[in-house]
What we know:
The complex is a heterodimer. Chain A has two helices and one strand, in the order αβα. Chain A is mainly alpha-helical. Chain A starts with 6 loop residues before the first helix and ends with a helix. Chain B has two domains: 47 residues, no CATH class; 147 residues, Four Helix Bundle (Hemerythrin (Met), subunit A) (Up-down Bundle). By secondary structure, chain B is mostly helical. In chain B, helix 3 packs antiparallel against helix 7 and helix 4 crosses helix 6. Helices cover 64% and strands 5% of the residues of chain B. Chain B is built from seven helices and two strands. At the A-B interface, helix 1, strand 1 and helix 2 of A face strand 1 and helix 1 of B. Strand 1 of chain A pairs antiparallel with strand 1 of chain B, so a sheet runs across the interface.
Amino acid sequence: MQRVVTLTERKSLEAVRRQAAVRALEPILAAYARDHDGRFLLYGSSARG
Amino acid sequence: MKYDSDIDLLVDFPAETLGDAWNFAETACWDHGLDPDLMPYSWCKPAFLDHIAHRPTCGGISDARWFEIDAAVAATVRHFMGASKIFAQVPGAEAPEDRYLVEMGFMGAMLAGQTFLEAALVRILDLNGEEAPTGARWHADLIQRAAHPVGDRPAILGPAAARAADQTRRFRSISAHAYDAFDHTQAVAAVRSAALLGAILPSEIARFRQATDP
């Protein structure tokens, strides 16, 4: 019988995926900012991890 | 970070390259399956920029949602203190028209104060990843929730503030649903609680913030 993924588990998995995506995005934004004389400031819950 | 959190980014670039930077960041977020919420740095209010300025770029930043919470707390204090001043005019309002204006003004100010108090508490719950109460009794449940620790979150309101908030919550129901039933006895109790909240709410919230997001 297939195991049911609870709503809490789905939310938790999606939160982990988003955290990883933010960590992967940071160096990309930083490189662009460095090359174009600007900066991106990350704030809010995505900055806290 | 929550399952539905978007990614909040301030874009600080020279005017001539701001559009390209914006498009780059937006596309990069989408490519990573993230919902971007972008804002030009130059559009931000000074108080918010001060808040951000002390934080390093890309990481380690405190939650900006305290900005809206502080605004809701300030509005709560303004309306509850205003209600207290209006209520002091009740004895002198003898003519029916004057009495009507004072009573309606008082009930409106009490309703506004309680609405902003609830908005502040709901935002604080959201900040802590806690879903707000729902259902017909959510107004009362919200005060009870704020008065107690939940998980590793400490109580948001101390006992005195929580009792006062529950008293103003009871009067809110009158203000919202019984426009023709001004109850002076209940109003006296409510206005005392409103004045107490006006005096101690900012320090209550500051204490909670220091404990949870120093």
